[in-house]
């Protein structure tokens, strides 16, 4: 489990439960709000019909002014490994918090839905309802005033309080990963004798949440003529209405990874999938998702037919997201921790030596 700022934890631990003590790094920057603020781009694109994922080219995002070394290291990690589902763990309250975290109107509190609001609510409840305390209606609120009791133990982040520059919104808008924030208890630093109690409170919830990585649809996209995987193809999803006569576009695409594989988290229902890649004929297929415990996601592979082989030169998007020329080749089979560390050190060494 990654700790982004272990020295901050140590400093905060010395000032028991003073939440903001130690949040800043050595440069006095709050790492909890230090990711590129991509929400403004996303909200504008919703109005204008612009792109709805990977909001900035990777290298542009890394050059965002004010980013700290710890934040850049996490960004490199997120782009090197194609995560599907994640969470970041906090203390100070008891709730599962889902995106968006930043409000559209820059107000302090306002429910701000993602295009996948239903799926995110389901993911948040997959944790809260399996936690022994989080979803209880009669539990004592953390601030003792009653204003932080959350129905079913979940909350939209922006509705609770707006957090621009947070990690969960960055993950959603710049990678293919769905992330929520888990506040695991009122006490930021429970005493050692309470650790076993915390484990029992969270054990089933953690396991159940991790199992949701198998929800929805997955597959591999390849070239119909060569059989080679197609990277950065867009997977678009349309939800079939209850009557089955119409479909509604879910305005958040995901893209295929370097091996052509994709993973799209979805709640139960009927959907139309459309796979699009420049230089190929688009392809679509209808699927029905029925997420059942201990079963894998529905599998749908796509073989795209090239329009014109002579015109299939790499496009700008491929050049931006294919980091092999910048960092060297990707690991052949498995993502190796030492290899990832080498990549991070190579990046910082190149820029700051």
From TrEMBL:
- Domain spans labelled Peptidase M14: 1-213
The cofactors required by this protein are: Zn(2+)
| Entry-linked PROSITE patterns | CARBOXYPEPT_ZN_2 (PS00133), PEPTIDASE_M14 (PS52035)
Recite the UniProt keywords alphabetically: Carboxypeptidase, Glycoprotein, Hydrolase, Metal-binding, Protease, Zinc
Matching entries from Gene3D superfamilies are given as:
Carboxypeptidase-like, regulatory domain, Zn peptidases
Active-site residues per Swiss-Prot or TrEMBL entry: 183
In terms of InterPro entries, this protein maps to: CarboxyPept-like_regulatory, CARBOXYPEPT_ZN_2, Peptidase_M14, Peptidase_M14_domain
How is this protein annotated for GO cellular component?
A: extracellular space
Q: Which SMART domains match?
A: Zn_pept
GO terms under biological process: peptide metabolic process; protein processing
- Gene Ontology terms, MF aspect: metallocarboxypeptidase activity; zinc ion binding
Give the family, as the similarity comment puts it. Belongs to the peptidase M14 family.
Q: What is this protein called?
A: Peptidase M14 domain-containing protein
User: In the record, what lineage is assigned to the organism producing the protein?
Assistant: Eukaryota, Metazoa, Spiralia, Lophotrochozoa, Mollusca
């Amino acid at each position: 489990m990654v700790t982004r700022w272990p020295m901050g934890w140590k400093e905060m631990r010395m000032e028991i439960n003073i939440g903001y003590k130690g949040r800043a790094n050595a440069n006095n920057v709050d790492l909890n709000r230090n990711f590129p603020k991509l929400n403004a781009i996303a909200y504008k694109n919703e109005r204008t019909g612009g792109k709805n994922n990977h909001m900035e080219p990777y290298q542009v995002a890394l050059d965002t002014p004010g980013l700290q070394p710890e934040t850049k290291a996490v960004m490199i990690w997120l782009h090197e490994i194609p995560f599907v589902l994640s969470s970041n763990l906090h203390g100070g309250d008891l709730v599962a918090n889902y995106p968006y975290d930043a409000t559209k109107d820059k107000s302090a509190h306002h429910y701000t839905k993602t295009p996948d609001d239903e799926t995110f609510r389901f993911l948040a409840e997959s944790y809260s309802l399996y936690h022994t305390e989080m979803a209880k209606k009669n539990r004592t609120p953390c601030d003792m005033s009653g204003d932080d009791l959350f129905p079913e133990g979940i909350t939209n982040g922006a509705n609770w309080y707006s957090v621009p520059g947070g990690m969960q919104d960055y993950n959603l808008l710049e990678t293919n990963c769905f992330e929520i924030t888990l506040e695991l208890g009122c006490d930021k630093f429970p005493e050692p004798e309470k650790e076993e109690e915390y484990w029992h409170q969270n054990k089933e919830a953690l396991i159940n949440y991790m199992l949701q990585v198998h929800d929805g649809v997955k597959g591999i996209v390849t070239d119909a003529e060569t059989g080679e995987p197609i990277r950065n193809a867009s997977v678009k999803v349309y939800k079939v209405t209850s009557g089955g006569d119409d479909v509604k576009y879910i305005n958040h695409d995901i893209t295929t990874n370097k091996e052509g594989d994709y993973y799209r988290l979805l709640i139960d229902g009927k959907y139309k999938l459309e796979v699009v890649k420049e230089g190929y004929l688009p392809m679509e297929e209808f699927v029905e998702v029925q997420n059942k415990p201990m079963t894998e996601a529905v599998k749908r592979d796509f073989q795209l037919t090239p329009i014109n082989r002579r015109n299939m030169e790499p496009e700008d998007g491929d050049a931006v997201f294919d980091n092999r020329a910048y960092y060297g080749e990707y690991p052949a089979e498995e993502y190796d921790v030492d290899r990832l560390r080498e990549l991070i050190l190579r990046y910082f060494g190149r820029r700051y030596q």
